[in-house]
Specification:
This protein has about 900 residues and is α+β, with helices and mostly antiparallel strands. Helix content is about 35%, strand content about 15%. It contains 23 helices and 26 strands. Strands 2, 6, 7, 10, 11, 16, 17, 18 and 19 form a 9-stranded mixed sheet that branches. The protein has a 4-stranded mixed sheet with strand order 12-13-22-21. A 3-stranded antiparallel sheet has the order 3-4-5, with helices on one face. The chain binds adenosine-5'-triphosphate. Keywords: ATP-binding, Coiled coil, Microtubule, Motor protein, Nucleotide-binding. One of its GO terms (molecular function) is ATP binding.
Length: about 900
């Protein structure tokens, strides 16, 4: 019996091999970097303790789904494998190793240097990550933290590379062991994972300065340095996943010229400009590995991308002849011009299960049908190819997103190795492959407000990464279950356990479908986690870190013995290998119209208007046959994944809506607040103005009383004429000082009474309290008392009515009157009025009110203020007095410009009484 046929695919198969072949079940400590040689590799049992101190992703929580993949007794496909007796089998030494997870911290760029990174390496293998928002929250009581991730966590890695790490060093520690493996017949997978702008492309491809070449160009350098002088003539070419087929040496001579690949169009010019600006051979890695010189090697390269859950050949523009079908063109991408419009057509490739005829020990992975591999004979040639793929990726990627890689880029290097003595024996052929994947940045839809096509694109990126995480989780859980059953007493028969293992959901995304063989078959897997510690997406970075913690708990099988590969059945030519549909796209074909431009040498700008047609995958006649080998896809799992994706989209849309509503609400509240503030400001300025006005009027009234009483001419005090002159001068100088539109420091617009205010402020008109010399005179004639409740009324007679309504009290009368001699107000140019007699200071003998009235009448008589006199002035202490004093036929008329000042309490009223004839 062919023992290989008993091998099963899926996690169960891994478990079987692990249990059968793991020789020393010791629990190793994670090594900081992968071993360079097989002898140093640590043999690891599948049972691992979680090394991350943070919570890992939650288990799916659903019942393990089983199908035939879960069964160790899964029957091999009914299809017969080639019956060649020399069918090779793998070596006996298979070990299991955890996925290596390396953290690379990106250095600060530009303005980021001013920011504090939120990653703090604690050692070579552990790092602390602290949410910057939690610091901000501690400082501000208004800030609240919306993150679901823990505010601070410690994560462990196989090794942590600080920002200062240089490309050569990074390559030597992470990738060189895989390069050695692939040249010795082992498979290897390396993928860079991280959020957008975290440095994945820089790590894989490199920068554009000296010594910044990434791990891909370095890998090519090391391979060609090592196989120098050991290259075969390329009489076999790799097909499908493990197969190889004979080809005529030389048929695969490459014809790749970027300009030629695009034809004579503006697009060609853009392509060549882009090629010039794309970093090429920046620096070369001098490392050379020692290889078995009994073998000869041929190196093949392919470059695919997965975009929106479709797989494309990035070297699709290269036209070559496959030799097997003479005359047939094998281009997957074409650029044709119709009436000035360039139509760029590329065809999505199908992912097919590897046929049983190719299978190695029953392991059936998947391959990308029609993805072409090109034989490369030098590092320069290989880098040129990569560069062409890069340009295509940039072209198609730019059409999607100018800044960020929106696709997963996948370069696969296949090494065909044959013994020099058996170079014509296909059974002695060995094939190994190394795939380097630059994953699309895990999309931060929440932060980038992605919508429409971008949202769908982001959804697909996230879906494939989510499925990758799910696969790892299921693999880990399956491996743990098998390991537990092995370690338990009397539980060495893991048959029952294996039956209950969950199906690893590789098939739910193109990315995992294409990579599943690395997880299920043999090969070492390395994961590079790129983190930008200045990035605002703390949550996304936490997710990336948790993902790496999970990956470190998954084990893959490594086989120390070289793996001989079978010579596959001849390739069946199918329609998928034929040329693309040519001509204009059919009307129902979805197309995208885009403009792409580039700046070439001498700052020449090239621009091309393109119509992009992405043809769907085609199914060929052999697909049915292939489908026989396919494991049935579980519709429930598929539906669940779709649902998760839909929910994620809905969540995102809801978040967007919330953000919009929040922004609108904030704006509304702001507007309302502004309006209220404005109203308040107006109210307060109105009050201030009226207050000012009132004070002005009061002040003016008081000063006018003094003027009219002629008190300023006494005892050296300024004569009224002098005061008026001074007033005028002061007014003039004040008005000169004040520019039109002047406003004081308070910002309040000048009051219409500002001039009056200024008068008093400037001191040109002395305040009553300032006129010390006249104080006694004033006291003698009138007492001026301020009252906070004073009110100034206009000349509308209100005062009169008000006063009449209010009964007079005795206090009023007492307070209101201070005996004073009657004063005759001198008219301008007339001699100053005679000095009034000092008031009698004797005790009051009569009722104050009566005394006031009589005294006032006497005063009037003394001053000759009769009804015929002009400009007569009389001070009437209160309304009673006024009523009593004003003789029949005389009415109270305020002089024009003189305010009728009234008080409810404790006030003196200055009245100018004119005779009827004067008014
Ligand atoms: N280790 C590093 N040293 C210097 N510069 C770096 C480093 N890593 C990244 N950069 C720079 O950071 C920027 C973003 O890097 P990169 O384009 O590689 O991010 P990315 O993760 O591939 O983003 P995306 O997923 O959007 O494609 C680039 O300008 C790159 O040159």
């Amino acid at each position: 019996m062919n023992t290989r046929s008993t091998r099963t695919a899926g996690a169960a198969s891994q478990a079987t091999r692990a249990s059968a072949r793991t020789r020393t079940p010791t629990i190793p400590a994670p090594s900081p970097s992968p071993p360079l040689t097989k002898s140093t590799r640590t043999k690891t049992p599948v049972n691992q303790n979680a090394t991350a101190q943070t919570s890992t992703l939650k288990p799916a929580g659903r019942k393990p789904l089983s199908n035939r993949a879960n069964s160790p007794d899964k029957p091999v496909s009914s299809k017969k494998a080639p019956t060649t007796a020399s069918k090779p089998h793998k070596g006996d030494v298979t070990e299991r190793e955890p996925i290596m997870a390396y953290l690379r911290i990106r250095p600060a760029l530009g303005e980021e240097e001013a920011t504090t990174p939120y990653l703090d390496p604690l050692s070579d293998t552990s790092v602390r990550m602290t949410d910057p928002a939690s610091d901000a929250m501690a400082q501000s009581r208004f800030h609240y933290r919306m993150s679901m991730a823990a505010p601070s966590s410690i994560y462990k890695f196989s090794h942590i590379f600080p920002p200062s790490t240089q490309q050569p060093d990074f390559f030597a520690k992470t990738t060189l062991p895989l390069v050695k493996d692939v040249l010795e017949g082992q498979n290897g997978l390396l993928f860079a994972y991280g959020v957008t702008n975290s440095g994945k492309t820089y790590t894989i491809q490199g920068g554009n300065k000296g010594d910044s070449a990434g791990i891909l160009p370095r890998t090519l350098d090391v391979i060609f340095n090592s196989v120098n002088g050991l290259q075969g003539d390329g009489r076999f070419r790799p097909v499908r996943l493990y197969g190889a087929e004979r080809c005529e040496p030389g048929n695969d001579n490459l014809f790749y010229n970027i300009r030629a690949s695009a034809g004579e169009s503006s697009f060609a010019a853009v392509l060549s400009d882009l090629a010039e600006s794309t970093p090429g051979d920046i620096d070369t890695d001098p490392t050379t590995l020692k290889l078995d010189r009994n073998y000869e090697y041929s190196i093949w390269l392919s470059y695919a991308e997965i975009y929106n859950e479709k797989v494309y050949d990035l070297l699709g523009t290269i036209e070559d002849d496959d030799g097997s079908t003479p005359g047939s063109s094998r281009r997957n991408t074409t650029a044709q011009t119709f009436g000035g419009q360039t139509v760029l057509t590329r065809k999505a490739l199908t992912v097919k299960p590897s046929p049983a005829s190719d299978s190695i020990e029953g392991i059936t992975g998947k391959y990308i049908a029609d993805l072409r591999h090109f034989r490369v004979t030098s590092a320069t040639e290989a880098k040129e190819l990569v560069k062409l793929g890069q340009v295509h990726r940039r072209v198609f990627g730019t059409l999607a997103n100018a800044q960020s890689s929106r696709s997963h880029g996948m370069v696969t290097i296949k090494v065909l190795r044959s013994h020099r003595g058996e170079r014509n024996n296909p059974d002695a052929l060995q094939m190994s492959r190394l795939t380097l994947v630059d994953l699309a940045g895990s999309e931060r839809t929440k932060h980038t407000h992605t919508t429409g096509d971008r949202l769908r694109e982001a959804g697909n990126i996230n879906k494939s990464l989510m499925v990758l995480g799910q696969c790892m989780e299921v693999m880990r859980s399956n491996q743990n279950r098998v390991a537990q059953s092995l370690s338990g007493p009397g539980r060495s028969d893991t048959k029952v356990v294996r039956k209950g293992l969950a199906l690893v959901p590789f098939r739910h995304s193109k990315l995992t479908e294409v990579l599943m063989d690395y997880f299920e078959g043999d090969g070492r897997v390395v994961m590079i986690v790129n983190v930008n510690p200045y990035d605002t997406g703390y949550d996304e970075n936490s997710h990336v870190m948790k993902f790496s913690a999970l990956a470190r708990e998954v084990h893959t099988a490594t086989n120390n013995a070289p793996a001989p590969r079978v010579l596959a059945a001849p390739t069946k030519p199918g329609p998928a290998r034929g040329p693309l549909k040519s001509g204009l796209p059919p009307p129902n074909m979805p197309t995208r119209k885009v403009t792409i431009s580039s700046v070439g040498p001498n700052r020449r700008v090239s621009e091309a208007h393109l119509e992009i047609v992405e043809e769907d995958e085609e199914s060929g006649p052999d697909d049915e046959e292939d489908d026989e080998d396919e494991e049935p896809i579980n519709p429930l799992v598929d539906a669940l994944f779709d649902e998760v994706e839909q929910l994620r989209m809905k969540l995102h849309e809801a978040e967007l809506r919330c953000a919009v509503v929040e922004a609108e609400t904030r704006e509304e509240v702001m507007k309302e607040m502004e309006e209220r503030m404005l109203v308040m400001q107006q109210t307060y300025s109105r009050r201030l103005m009226s207050e000012l006005e009132r004070n002005e009027k009061k002040m003016d009234a008081k000063i006018d009383m003094l003027h009219q009483a002629g008190l300023f001419g006494q005892n050296g005090t300024p004569q009224q004429g002098d005061i008026e002159d001074e007033d005028m001068e002061a007014d003039e100088s004040y008005m000169q000082d004040r520019e039109p539109g002047f406003s004081d420091e308070s910002g309040i617009a000048p009051s219409p009474l500002a001039g009056k205010t200024a008068k008093t402020k400037a001191g040109s008109r002395p305040r009553p309290s300032e006129i010390e010399g006249s104080e006694s005179e004033v006291e003698r004639s009138i007492a001026i008392e301020d009252d906070d409740e004073d009110e100034v009324h206009g000349e509308d007679g209100e005062e009169e009515e008000e006063l009449d309504e209010e009964p007079l009290t005795e206090d009023d009368e007492e307070d209101d009157y201070v005996p004073s001699p009657p004063i005759k107000q001198p008219s301008r140019g007339k001699p100053a009025p005679p000095r009034l007699d000092p008031p009698s200071k004797g005790p009051r003998s009569s009722k104050p009110g009566q005394r006031k009235v009589s005294t006032l009448v006497d005063d009037m008589d003394r001053l000759g203020l009769d009804g015929d006199a002009d400009d007569s002035v009389i001070i009437v202490p209160d309304r009673k007095a006024r009523k009593a004093a004003v003789p029949e036929g005389i009415e109270y008329v305020p002089r024009p410009g003189v305010t009728d000042v009234g008080k409810k309490k404790k006030r003196y009223v200055l009245l100018l009484i004119r005779t009827r004839g004067i008014s």
